[in-house]
C-alpha cells in the first residue's frame, strides 16, 4: 500500500529511508513515485498564496466585522493572522521535508496514525466539496447581482450560470496544472488591484481632506451619514470592545473563517518547480500580505467611513465597505465594479477548491484498498488526476439541485456551516502532527524550521479550540458546532476503531 509517494505499511516511511531521515534528500529522489508535473512557477505559487489569503469575506463581510467591534477589528485580524501564520509554518516545515507529498493531510497519517489520517483525509475532502457547493451558489448570486446593477434580471438562469462556471473551471483544472496556476494568477491580480485601488483612494482623500455628504448606498438601508476623511475616524473614542466583550470575542470566529483556505498553498507543493525555494518564500510573506491586504484595507475603509456608520440591514445583511468607499469617491458604478471583483474572488475560491478536492480524492484513492477507488488514483496524459477532478466536480454539481428542494436545502445549509467548523479539527490535527514530526527521526535541522515549536504549537492548538468553543455561544453557529462535534465523535471514532481492528487482525495473521 502506498502512503503519499513512499512505500509504507504504517508510517509512510520505508525501512531503507529511515536511516537517512536526518539529512535533506533531493526533490528528485523523493519524486520517484510522484506522477504529477511540476508546472507551477514561483509567481503562480506566490499569487495562489495571496488568493488563498483574500476571499469574498473581505469585500462583502468586513462591514459586519467592523460593526461588531469597531477599530479593534484590526487587532483581531492581526492576532488571528499570526496564528494562521503558525499553522502555515508548521505545514511549510513538513512539506519542505518531503515536497513530493500531494497534501499536508498525509503528515497526519504519518505521525498520528492511519485512523486519524483517514478521518482527516475524508473529512477534508467532504469539507472541500461542501464549501465548493456554497461557492458555486455564491458565484451565481454575485453574477445575478452584477448584471442586476445594469437592469438585467438573470435570476431564472442561476442554474445555467452555475453549470457554465463549474464546467469552465473543471476544464481549466483538467488541461494542465500550469493553466490552473495561470488562472489563479490573474484572479488574484484582479483582487489585488481593487484593494490597492481602495488604499490609494484613501490616501488621496486623506491628503486633500475630502468630505462627502449623506448618501444612499446600494445594499444599505436608508441614507448613510456624511463625514470627513480622517484618521480620527479610527482613533476618536477608541475602545477595545465598544459593543461589549461578547461581541469582541465573537469577532475572532468571523475573522478566523475569513482566513480559511489559507492552507491551500500546502496542497500545491508536489506540483511546484523548485519547491524548497518557493515554499518558504510563500509562507514567510504571509504576514506582509495580511498587513497590506487586510489591515491596510480596514484602516483605509474606517478612515473614510466612520465605523459607527456600519449598521445591520433589516434582512440581517451589511453593506459592502468597498462599495461605500468607491461611491463616496464619485464612482457611480461602484457596486458593479465591486461585484465584478467579488465574482472573480468566488470563482478563484471555487477553482482552488476543485483543484484541492481532486488532489485529496486522488490521495484517498491511492491509499484505498478498494478496486473501485483505485480507478481514481490515475493521472492523465496531462499529468493531472483527471478522474478525481471530474468526480469532485460532479459532486459540487449537486448544489443547484439541492438548492431547488426546500426541505433538503435547509439541511444543506447546516451541513455546509458545520463543514467550516470541522476544518478546525483538521488544523488541530495538523499542529499535533507537526509536534510529532519535531520529535521524530524525520526532523530536518537544516530544513524550513519553525522556531519555538514546543510553545507555539500549543498556542495555535489552544486558539483553535477557543474558536470552536465560541461557536457554541451564538445561536447562528450553535447548530454547526454541535453537528461538527457529532461528526468528530461518530466518524472519528469509526476510523480509529477500524484501524485498531485492522492492526489486531494483522498481528494475528503474522506467523508466531
Largest sheet report: 2 strands, antiparallel
Structural class: mainly alpha
- Strand arrangement within the widest β-sheet reads 1-2
How much of the polypeptide forms β-strand, as a percent range? under 5%
Distance linking N and C termini: 23 Å
Work out the helix count: 21
Low-pLDDT windows of residues:
1-21
Gyration radius, to the nearest Å? Answer: 23 Å
SSE order: EEHHHHHHHHHEEHHHHHHHHHHHH
Give the proportion of residues in helices: 55-70%
Report the mean per-residue pLDDT as an integer.
86
Shape: globular
**How many individual β-strands?**
4
Could you characterize what this model shows?
With 512 residues, this protein is an all-alpha fold. The chain has helices at residues 15-18, 27-30, 42-53, 56-69, 73-97, 105-112, 114-148, 158-175, 177-208, 232-235, 245-258, 275-284, 286-304, 321-328, 334-367, 371-374, 386-396, 399-403, 406-439, 453-470, 475-509; strands spanning 2-3, 6-7, 211-212, 227-228. The strands form two sheets. It has a two-stranded antiparallel sheet. Strands 3-4 form a two-stranded antiparallel ribbon.
Secondary structure: elements and pairs:
Elements: E1 2-3, E2 6-7, H1 15-18, H2 27-30, H3 42-53, H4 56-69, H5 73-97, H6 105-112, H7 114-148, H8 158-175, H9 177-208, E3 211-212, E4 227-228, H10 232-235, H11 245-258, H12 275-284, H13 286-304, H14 321-328, H15 334-367, H16 371-374, H17 386-396, H18 399-403, H19 406-439, H20 453-470, H21 475-509
Antiparallel strand pairs: 1-2, 3-4
Amino acid at each position: 500500500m502506498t502512503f503519499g509517494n513512499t512505500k509504507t505499511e504504517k508510517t509512510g516511511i520505508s525501512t531503507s529511508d529511515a536511516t537517512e531521515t536526518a539529512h535533506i534528500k533531493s526533490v528528485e529522489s523523493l519524486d520517484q513515485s510522484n506522477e504529477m508535473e511540476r508546472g507551477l512557477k514561483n509567481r503562480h505559487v506566490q499569487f495562489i498564496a495571496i488568493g488563498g489569503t483574500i476571499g469574498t469575506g473581505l469585500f462583502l463581510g468586513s462591514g459586519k466585522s467592523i460593526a461588531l467591534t469597531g477599530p479593534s477589528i484590526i487587532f483581531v485580524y492581526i492576532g488571528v493572522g499570526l496564528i494562521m501564520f503558525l499553522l502555515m509554518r508548521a505545514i511549510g516545515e513538513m512539506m519542505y521535508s518531503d515536497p513530493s507529498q500531494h497534501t499536508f493531510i498525509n503528515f497526519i497519517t504519518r505521525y498520528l496514525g492511519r485512523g486519524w489520517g483517514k478521518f482527516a483525509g475524508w473529512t477534508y475532502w467532504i469539507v472541500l466539496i461542501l464549501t465548493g457547493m456554497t461557492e458555486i451558489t455564491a458565484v451565481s448570486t454575485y453574477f445575478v447581482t452584477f448584471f442586476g446593477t445594469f437592469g438585467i434580471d438573470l435570476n431564472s438562469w442561476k442554474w445555467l450560470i452555475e453549470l457554465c462556471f463549474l464546467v469552465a473551471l473543471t476544464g481549466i483544472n483538467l488541461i494542465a496544472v500550469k493553466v490552473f496556476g495561470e488562472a489563479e494568477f490573474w484572479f488574484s491580480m484582479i483582487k489585488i488591484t481593487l484593494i490597492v485601488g481602495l488604499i490609494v483612494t484613501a490616501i488621496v482623500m486623506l491628503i486633500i481632506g475630502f468630505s462627502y455628504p449623506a448618501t444612499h448606498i446600494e445594499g444599505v438601508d436608508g441614507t448613510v451619514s456624511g463625514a470627513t476623511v480622517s484618521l480620527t475616524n479610527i482613533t476618536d473614542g477608541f475602545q477595545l470592545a465598544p459593543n461589549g466583550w461578547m461581541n469582541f470575542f465573537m469577532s475572532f470566529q468571523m475573522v478566523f473563517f475569513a482566513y480559511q483556505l489559507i492552507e491551500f498553498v500546502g496542497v500545491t507543493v508536489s506540483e511546484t518547480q523548485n519547491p524548497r525555494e518557493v515554499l518558504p518564500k510563500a509562507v514567510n510573506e504571509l504576514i506582509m500580505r495580511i498587513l497590506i491586504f487586510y489591515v491596510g484595507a480596514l484602516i483605509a475603509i474606517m478612515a473614510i467611513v466612520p465605523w459607527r456608520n456600519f449598521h445591520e440591514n433589516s434582512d440581517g445583511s451589511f453593506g459592502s465597505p468597498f462599495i461605500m468607499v468607491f461611491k463616496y469617491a464619485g464612482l457611480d458604478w461602484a457596486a458593479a465594479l465591486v461585484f465584478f471583483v467579488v465574482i472573480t474572488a468566488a470563482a478563484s475560491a471555487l477553482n482552488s477548491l476543485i483543484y484541492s478536492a481532486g488532489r485529496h480524492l486522488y490521495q484517498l484513492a491511492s491509499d484505498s484498498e478498494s478496486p473501485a477507488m483505485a480507478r481514481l488514483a490515475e493521472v492523465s496524459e496531462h499529468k493531472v488526476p483527471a478522474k478525481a477532478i471530474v468526480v469532485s466536480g460532479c459532486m459540487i454539481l449537486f448544489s443547484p439541485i439541492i438548492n431547488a428542494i426546500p426541505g433538503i436545502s435547509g439541511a444543506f445549509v447546516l451541513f455546509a456551516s458545520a463543514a467550516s467548523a470541522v476544518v478546525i479539527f483538521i488544523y488541530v490535527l495538523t499542529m499535533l502532527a507537526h509536534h510529532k514530526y519535531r520529535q521524530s527521526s524525520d526532523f530536518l535541522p537544516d530544513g524550513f524550521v519553525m522556531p519555538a515549536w514546543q510553545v507555539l504549537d500549543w498556542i495555535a492548538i489552544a486558539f483553535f479550540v477557543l474558536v470552536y468553543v465560541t461557536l457554541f455561544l451564538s445561536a447562528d453557529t450553535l447548530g454547526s458546532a454541535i453537528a461538527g462535534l457529532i461528526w468528530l465523535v461518530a466518524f472519528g471514532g469509526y476510523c480509529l476503531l477500524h484501524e485498531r481492528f485492522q492492526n489486531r487482525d494483522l498481528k494475528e495473521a503474522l506467523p508466531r
